[in-house]
Amino acid sequence: MTGQALSVQELKTDAGMQGLLPGAQFADAFRIAVSDDTLTARQAAERMFLRLPRWIDTLMRLRNLVVAPLGLKTPTHTKAIAANSIGPFPVISETPQRLVAGFDDRHLDFRVIVDVADNPPRCQVTATTLVMTHNLLGRVYLATIMPFHRIIVPAMLRQV
Q1: Has residue 79 got a pLDDT over 70?
Q2: CA–CA separation, 126 and 128 (whole Å)
Q3: How much is the pLDDT for 141?
Q4: What is the pTM of this model?
Q5: Three-state DSSP class for residue 152
Q6: Are 86 and 101 in contact (CB under 8 A)?
Q7: What is the pLDDT of residue 18?
Q8: How far is CA 92 from CA 4, 25, 44, 73, 99, in A?
Q9: Average pLDDT for residues 6-10, to the nearest whole number?
Q10: DSSP labels for 4-57?
Q11: Which residues lie below 8 Å from residue 23, measured CB to CB, with a gap of 6+?
Q12: Residue 55: pLDDT above 90?
C-alpha cells in the first residue's frame, strides 16, 4: 500500500528520452514522490492507468466517440492487465525501473514512459510523454488534447 503522496511537479524532459521516439516534437514530464520503496515501473503504470478517476474515464470515452469517425485508434482504459500491455497501451519495453508503452497511428506516434527511482525515504515516479505528429490531423489533435493532458497526467500520477 502506498503512503501519502506529495504534490506532482512538472520537470524539464531529459534529452535522452528523445531516443525512445526519434523525431518527437512534443515532450513533457511530471513526477511524484510516494512512500512505497518497493514499487516497480509496471506497478506504478498499472496504478496510473487502471485506477482512473471517473472524470478521466468519462473524458476518455468522449474522446473515443469524437475520434472514432476519423479512423483514429480508440483504446479502452478498462482493458485487462496483460504482460504485453498496460491499460490501453502496448508495452514496448520494460525493466523494473522503466516501462515504455505506446503506439503508432496514422496521425501521430505516442510513447508514455514510467520511471521509478528509489530516493529514500521516498520513491520518485516520473511519467514522460513523447509525441511525434505525422500530418495536420495529428497536429490538430495534439493541440486539442494538450490542455486536458496537462491536467490528466498529474491526476493519474496521484493514483500511484
Answers
A1: no
A2: 6
A3: 86
A4: 0.84
A5: helix
A6: yes
A7: 82
A8: 30, 20, 16, 17, 8
A9: 84
A10: -----EEEPPPGGGGGGSTT-SEEEEEEEEES-TT--HHHHHHHHHHS--HHHH
A11: 132
A12: no
State pLDDT tens for residues 82-104.
668 887 789 999 999 999 999 89
121 cis-preceded (ω within 30 degrees of 0): yes
* Spacing of C-alpha 80 from chain mean position: 17
C-alpha cell, 61: 470515452
Query: What pLDDT shows up at residue 6?
Result: 58
Question: How many other C-beta atoms can be found within 10 angstroms of the C-beta atom of residue 48?
Answer: 24
CA-CA distance, 112 to 72, in Å (whole number)?
Answer: 18
Amino acid at 156: M
**Nearest alpha-carbon partner for 67 in 138, 146, 135, 131:** 138
